[in-house]
Structure prediction request, 154 residues.
Amino acid sequence: MDHIERDLFFIFIFLSLTIVIGLLGVSVLSRLSNAGFTRPAGVTALVSGLLLVMAFLSTFMPYVALAPIPIFVVFGIAALLKGGTLHRDGGIVLLFVSVAWSVFTAIQLGIPPGTDIRVDLLITLPIMAFVSFIGFSIFGALPPERIHEARRAA
Prediction:
């Protein structure tokens, strides 16, 4: 696989993941909202903004984009292990977000340092902002216990 085919492969995977995360993420967020679980918008916006800054910094230092990956993996696996459909679905989306960050890192590593025109930023940064927002919104809205247990206790 030559350099161009590799780049096209990563871009295809990246855009496909964005669509999957968008569809599944919006579904999970709406179900969490209907169940009464939400996160304060200010906290979500702040963390999403910090993740966007990390994505921007990764254009100069590509390995910065590795930092969010283990966080989303750990919380995704933790959500999967809690059981329940919302935790399972939320965990799957969080794991997809970690894969999106991994592909984003691979894309950044494939671009030669010192490239003057970074047109890819017009596409990848808004996508990473969207993906990070969905991921952190789900992470923040998932209750610490299974939902049916929370309803029984109330």
